[in-house]
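Input/output pair, single chain:
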Amino acid sequence: MLGIDIGHQAIKLVVLARRRYGWCLQAYAVQPLPVAARGASLLASAAVRDGLAAALRQLPGRVRDAAVALNCDEAITRTIRLDAGLTDQGIENELAIEADQHLPFPLSDSSMDFCRVPASAGGKSPGQDVFLVACRQDTVAQRVQLLTELGLRPAVVDLDAMALGRMAGWRVTTAPQVLMDLGASGFRLHAFADRRLVYSRAHQMTDLPGSDFSAGSVPQQNPDHTARLVQEVRRAIQLFLISTTCKEPEISLVGGLASLPGLAETISGSCGQPASLLQPPSHIKLHAQVDAPRWRQSLPQLALACALAMRERG
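Output:
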């Protein structure tokens, strides 16, 4: 599977193949974009189409099936309690009936998907929780059109938070797990507890520390900009804590700015919570042609693309 992460300043690709022993990383690529775009114009711009075509040419082989992601702010997510024992079709029927209560747009204009949520530790209440994701149809259609125009088969359209949660291994601890996705124009905070997405919020920023966004590059540190980033991350963590019942989260950093020297330690000290770079899953083996040190250095930047490549169809 080809995982595609389309950011405001770069396109990241990761190719993973399923083997008997687990996953094999076959190739990856990063293609900087010449201009930054925002919102819907990002996917519609010629710069993104040309950039994705250029990134595909960097891959050593031909890949057909591709997975892309929606941002959480492009989708509606809800955890809904339904009767236990419903089939998938039964759940779909129930969600269609309840859609008007949860969607700010007509059901006829929506694309929906769901998954069953594992029971919480110690949970004994009757019924089952279902995680619903819904968005406008044109949000998905834009991505499908972009991929098909370049000869790719859109196998999966995932949610960025859920994909990153799988990348982190769905660690089940007594503490909530917070994933900070630090990008070029801001960051997103995704929080999980008992393998459930409990919170997700985007925070826009300008004048963040720069990076040339080439694979394996280390962002250049600007002390003033880094201090501001840490301050905003601390505020985001505080907002998360007062908005939920979660306490003492463990923080993992991903995204292009996550590898700023000393950033994890500074965030940990500022927030009073443990923070670290997201580590590569141990069950991903590398193809002989992949440079292992460069891959490990690139992982924070490539985390979402890698997570999407791990998303098997169906």
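Helices lie at 40-44, 46-58, 88-102, 137-149, 160-167, 223-243, 263-271, 292-309. The mean pLDDT is 85.
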